[in-house]
Every structure is written in structure tokens, then in C-alpha cells.
Specification:
alpha+beta; single chain; 7 helices; about 200 residues; globular
Length: about 200
Amino acid sequence: MPSYSQQLKQEPATMRTHILSAFPCIVIWIVFTAPQLGLPSAEACNMRTEGWEPTSLENRTVMAQVVIAGTVLRLRDRALTPPGGSGVYSAEVRVDEVYKGYPFFNQATALPSYSDPGDKVYLIRGFGSRERCLAQVMQGKKYIIFLTAVPVTGGREEDGVRLIARYDDIFGAAVEFDAEQERKIHNVVGKCRLFMLS
């Protein structure tokens, strides 16, 4: 299977899609750097939600590069949350299902499992508090998570990708798992596959 960088070289038409996938990163950069630049602070997120309607699960599924279901086993970097830190943390997630983007997801490196060697545990970056407009996840809970697979800097194929929470909407990188949400995702992913085959 070609690496992520090889796929980009082979398919220049998809470059526009990958450029557009940088949009959530720009939004996150603005949210995190606003306090340092003297812009309205991220705590103002609560005020910006007045009249806000969340982007549907179906639309987030279409826009995301990778969509998974998994259980948060452990939170990392939680000590860096405000007031002293950036408010962003990572989570070690046991992945139960990959709904979309398996070729990208498959390039991420799994962490060693705590209990069962068959478990697939991955580090996912980019969660945080709702005051900062981010998806807040909790240890022990299962979520549907929308991701972007970002190539690791270094240029070697074996470096793989990092899994980063994707924000096409405020709070939008994760939703608590339930069967109805999963059904909606299966419906969208099935339609996308049919569209691509026709």
C-alpha cells in the first residue's frame, strides 16, 4: 500500500481536498493563539454559541478524513489545561471500529496495549475543554471520533501519521457513542461508497 505522501504524488487532483482539510487546523490555531494575540479569549466560546446550530453528524462524517468508534482509556497532558496551559490534551483510545478512512488510519502506529494484546490503542491529539470550543472526552467513555491523519514530519515512510481530532464545527471532533449515531454513520459511509463506485 502506498504511503500517504506517495498517494498525494500519485493523485494531484486530490490535493485540493487535502488543502481544504487544513481548514480545521487553521480554526484550532486561531482558538489557541487568540489570547496571546490580544484577540477575544477562547473562554468567549460560550458566548459565540448563541443561535449556533451544530453541523450534522452526517455532514461531519462526509468532511472527515477518518471516522472511528473507540473508548478513551487514558487522558494525557491534562495538566496543561487552563489556567496554566494550552487547554489541549491527548487521549489514548482503544479503537473498536474504523468507519471511514482505513488506508489513512492504518498508517498510524498503535500504542502497546495495557491488558489485551489484541486491542488496538492509539494516541489521538486535539481534545480540550468546551470553554475553548473543543471536544471534551472522558476516561472510560466510548465516542465516535472524527479525525485527520497528518503525516509525521521527517519524510520517512515508516514515520506514518498522527491522528488529530478534526473540527468542522465547534465541539465537533467527538460525540458520545450510541447505536443511532452509528447507524447514521453507516448510512452515510455506505452512500459514499456507492457514489464512488458509480
